[in-house]
Amino acid sequence: MFSNFSEREKLILDYFAEDDSLTVSRLSGMLGVSSVTVRNDLNSLAEKGYISRTHGGALPTFDQDILERQRERQDEKRRIAKAAAAMVQDGDSIMIEAGTTLALLAKYLLGKAGIHVVTNSTLVLPYARYNSAARFTMTGGEFRPSTESFVGPVAVREIGNFNVNLAFVGTDGFSLERGLTTHFLEGAEIVKAMAKQAEKTIVLADSSKYRKAGFVNVLPLSDIDTLVTDSGLSPETVTQLTDAGIRIVSA
Fold first, then answer.
1. How far apart are CA 96 and CA 162, in angstroms?
2. What is the CATH number of domain 72-250?
3. CATH of the domain spanning 2-62, picked from 1.10.10.10, 3.40.50.720, 1.10.260.40, 3.30.70.260
4. Fewer CB atoms inside 10 A, N or C side of the chain?
5. 169-189 pLDDT, tens per residue?
6. pTM for the model
């Protein structure tokens, strides 16, 4: 998601992830540039929808947890999202669950024709704005700022109205023993609903999540078709997952 930003804009977002009450004067000192330059950067970020300008400074429009997760393992996330997008064919209907890696998937759909995306993720919206060749359907539901997503019974019910070729979902942890897990019950219900409506379920997860377990069980690994991950899984783990019937795509 940060690929369209200057290095200084990325730094500003990093600073906001740690302190959401920064002023122009403080940022000027931290960045070593003039106040005019900082104001221009803040105005640019505000136009992109990432901050809201205030008198003498700005406030992030995203929850700090989101900003923090966007900073983590950025190269891996980009590669995973790009590999997942390569699975989408012209004319496909797909679902995209909430998550920072999953949001990047929407970025790499540019250039594909006749795509229809159903999503509960508001992080997808910046990419929807400039991809006029694709159709985007947002679910309703209760907005959760910490995940930038719509969840709850309304979201689950609306997901059930659509049938898609592919469902792209995330996880907070996965293993053969526990399957997919997450920290939030509401998120688990969204993943289950999307998997039910899709011909194939594809999980996007970097290798750091292997053998981690969230609070809530979501799906057994036998219910997914493909895992798109980075090259960090050991050969033994890849063999075990493959033997369990899971296709592994290493990005």
1. 13
2. 3.40.50.1360
3. 1.10.10.10
4. C
5. 999 999 999 999 999 999 999
6. 0.78
